[in-house]
Amino acid sequence: MRIAIASDHAAVELKAELREYLIGLGHEVADLGPETTERVDYPDYGYKLAAVVADGTAERGVALCGSGIGISIAVNRNPACRCALVSEPLSAALAREHNDANVIAIGARLTGVDMAKACLDAFLATPFGGGRHGPRVDKLSSPSI
Q: What is the C-alpha separation between 14 and 145, in angstroms, rounded?
C-alpha cells in the first residue's frame, strides 16, 4: 500500500519509528516531513498530507503532532480526506469500518510507539464496512445542509 506520513516538530521521532515500521511491513512510504525537530506549523504538513491522499498519490495517510488534534483538523479541511484521531486499536478499526477513514492522526505526546503501531495495524487491516455507513460517509464530502 502507498502510505504518506507527516508530522510537526513534536512528532518527528514517532514519525521516524512508524515510517520504518511501515516499510518493514512492505508498504511504500512517502515521508512528507519535517526532517528535524526545529519548530514548524502543523497545518502546513497536514495540508501537504491531505493533498497527496486526495489526489491518489497515497492510498492512506498518517498524521502526527503533539496531541494529534491540530494536524487532524488541518487534514480534514480537505473534503476528500476523512482523518480520525485515534489512541488505541479499536478506534482505528472503527474509523475504517464505519467512517472509511483514509487518514489517521496520532498524538506523539499521548500515545507510545507500541500503541501507535497497534493503531496502524488495525487501521490498515480493517476494510470499510459499507452498507448503512456508505450514505453517511458520502455526506462527509458533500454535505446537504
A: 38
Residue 80 identity (one-letter amino acid): A
Which residues, in sequence order, are CB contacts of 144 under 8 Å at separation 6+? none
Q: Tell me the chain's radius of gyration from C-alpha atoms.
A: 14
Active site (catalytic) residues: 65, 98
* CA-based nearest residue to 65, from 34, 98, 20, 19: 34
pLDDT for the residue numbered 105: 98
DSSP for the chain, written as a single string: -EEEEEE-GGGHHHHHHHHHHHHHTT-EEEE-S--SSS---HHHHHHHHHHHHHTTS-SEEEEEESSSHHHHHHHTTSTT--EEE-SSHHHHHHHHHHH--SEEEEETTTS-HHHHHHHHHHHHHPPP--TTHHHHHHHHHS---
Q: Low-confidence residues of the chain, pLDDT below 70?
A: 143-145
pLDDT score at 131:
83
Query: What count of residues does the chain have?
Result: 145
pLDDT computed for residue 48 by the predictor: 98
The pTM for the full model equals 0.95
pLDDT, position 144: 63
